[in-house]
Amino acid sequence: MPKFRKTPCFLVLVIVTSLLSAAQAQAGSAARAAAPGGVNDRSLDAKVEALLHKMTLDEKIGQLVQYSAGQPTGPGTGRTDYNDMIAKGEIGALFNVTGAKEVNAYQHIAMEKSRLHIPIVFGLDVIHGFRTEFPIPLGLASTWDPALVEKAARVAAREASASGIRWTFSPMVDIARDARWGRMAEGAGEDPFLGSAMAVAYVRGYQGTRLDAPDSIAACVKHYVGYGAAEGGRDYNSTEISEHTLRQFYLPPFHAAVDAGTATIMSAFNSLNGVPSSANPFTLTQVLRKEWGFRGVVDSDWTSVAELIPHGIANDGATAARKALLAGVDVDMVSSLYHDHMAKLVKSGEVPQANIDEAVRRVLRVKFALGLFDHPYTDEKSEAAAMLQPESLSLARSAAERSFVLLKNAAGTSGAPLLPLSADTHTVALIGPLGDDGPNMLGSWAGMGKGEDVVSLRAALAKRIGADNLLVAKGVGILDGKDEDIAAAVDAAKKADVALVVLGENAGEMTGEAASRSNPGLPGRQQELLQAVIATGKPVVLVLCSGRPLIAPWAFEHVPAVLAAWFPGIQGGPALVNVLFGETTPTGRLVVSWPRSVGQEPLYYNASSTGRPQGAPGGEEKYVSRYIDELNSPQFPFGFGLSYTSYQYGATEISAKQLKVPSLNASLGVKASPVLTATASVTNSGKRAGEEVVQLYVRLQGTSVAQPVRALKGFQRVTLAPGETKKVTFDLGPEAFAMWNEKNQFAAEPSRATVWISSDSASGSGATFEIVP
Ligand code: BGC
């Protein structure tokens, strides 16, 4: 029996919670059950049962065992006897094996030498592209364009499957509120609504319309759950998250991904309220299985089963294996503890046979759903042709263009905003450690991406303005630098019409996993270089390449134009040139609040109010919630991003002054119809055509549990010609006004609701209505 390590009082809450959620889950599963070719396809059950029936205990345990057989992506070197183990049916999944030939070699052993011929499923961290690398996920989310993200995931699936990879450990849907955490780069930022939209987009893109199509791959939504809330932003650190906060902020993207049919989920490294996520029966069994009806596989993270020992909840490998499996982890990634101890645990009765059978059922279900039994091998001849196709490259370029966020665009010497650069820009000085860089542009977790596939900014600029007009002077390295090189960069700036300074982080070492930074600003001597270039008096455009918002208040004050380019992928150079020269108008918006200083972290827009809110922003009243040495507000708010044109918003108008709780709750469910319409006119008040990301936020006041000062509940992209006005309409369902209440039930409550239609999380004027009993 799973052991709930919670107080009885907590258990009561859990049961109450499950009443409503279970009804929702049922409705959700009914809709999912019809989905063909996925883990919810019941027509696979008979095949699964028939095979399960033939399996010995050791063969069953083999299906729950996974190893890395290539470049390791975590600590330890693993084993070397995979061929032998596969032949004996002791391995169900391998990952980090690359190339169709290598994959097929292992698969032949499984299909020809193992007794039951059960295919291996091959996985890889295909995070933001396989060979065609797209912007990092933080950049992809900054497009606020789920349809584009779905297309990018589809390209990744096509390329990966051509190499024999049918399982990706993506998307990472961890809510990230702290820029110190290096893995912020891998997710969609701080908001559960946007995060859910992105989660669904990735799952759909990877899994396609049918999981058994040869170019579909199984998604693995990770890291379940709360991993992004690591204390102090230090990777792998513990988290303390109340059930309310967990349900309201951290769980929704996972739930959305389950509803979208994700085949697998990865359990996280962190402990959550004292219980490691890879042995947490509440999250893994109660919420995931019982409330949401998830029928796919839970995979542990890299050695997270063995890590139950250093976590302090197991003193030996057998206990760790037992606790993980009983909590709901089906597959043991790399630890080898299921392999080493599970048979004995079953024979001694410590792990019921039924739990093993259930875990194996899920694994077989995914393998059947992927069509692996019918098509276990990959066509080695078509592998190369699938990579870097022209449409994939063009999608990578447009994804990069749309991921850039224009943070500042003050007047240049002509008096007009510095960007876009004028067509008669003749000489450009390209300065900074990342201006002529391939590998870093790929970002962390770059799959099979290659530095040589990257079109760097230098190459793209040279093509645009002619190599002779491009003065390249790195100035400093990412972490180091010499006075004479800074002087050379200053000389280049003096000779040019404009200086493009490209600064930021090292993608592999400073962002991604195990890359937490206590001071996430410009590293090394980069600010010094920037100051020296600014001192020339030449127009300066700063391009930031990073996996997080970089704390750089000096730059934001003194540099006239700043573009956040994240790590833009293999088409980063051409995309930057298109945006800098105005062929494309920037449309990216921040998905994380950009901090002014590290002491503000964790920083997120959708926080609760306090009993002593600060009145006027920046006010100096004493007994209010504020810093005495820093503003409360971010440098740039969530949702923010400038354009080369400007937009004016009319007042938010709503269709009702009152809504009734019973009618809201009656329609809460899968196919709820809209209950309120909100509209605002948006005008392009500038001189260029543009695409605005119109955002809708809600606040509820007078509720049983304090609600965020604003919560995103909708967004739309609207194209506007110069001078054009459009009425933008949002049809809001009851879920926009429901919340996790004091009983941890998702319901509407009598309250005052305010709705804003605005261009970011900090602007606009709201319209208010009452939700009445
Ligand atoms: C990471 C996961 C990744 C896994 C396999 C772990 O260290 O946390 O995100 O999927 O390794 O490479």
Strand order of the largest sheet: 11-16-15-14-12-13
Ligands in the structure?
A: beta-D-glucopyranose
**Class derived from helix and strand content:** alpha/beta
Bin the strand percentage: 15-25%
Low-confidence stretches: 1-34
- What distance lies between the first and last C-alpha atoms, to the nearest angstrom? 42 Å
Tell me the radius of gyration.
26 Å
Spatial shape: globular
Considering DSSP H and I runs of 4 or more, what fraction of the residues is helical? 25-40%
User: Major β-sheet, in short?
Assistant: 6 strands, mixed
Number of DSSP-assigned strands: 27
Taking all residues together, what is the mean pLDDT? 94
Question: Helix count?
Answer: 25
